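Need tokens for this chain, all 137 residues.
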Amino acid sequence: MAVTLEQPARARLITPEGRERTLPVTLRYAADDPLAVQICFPPEASLDGAEVTWIFARQLLEEGLDAPAGGGDVHIWPCGRARTVLEFHAPKGLALVQFDRAVLRRFLVRTYAVVRAGRESAGLDLDQDLARLLGGV
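Here are the structure tokens for all 137 residues:
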């Protein structure tokens, strides 16, 4: 059975007007997808009223805690000594979200307790996963 780690957290959504709106979010890491982390936002955070989950590289989160990192849809950078900003790009717009750096660091440390750095591919069966993805073709 694959281990899934979930950690509730508080995020601050930065509105286009520059105001902060506090949101409960869930940080998630699954051993069966060891290269990725997830941040799940509640329905009230989205334009269409649906829960939103962003999935991106665990390595990107680690890099972004100490220096600007990312490209494409997700960018992460330190904001002062105590906060980290995550910037999410979607077809309908952009979201800026701040976290306490300590919360993200604690979550990251917990993910490495589940799957150590460098061991992400140890439990993967790429041939089986590819066959399942292609539907046995």
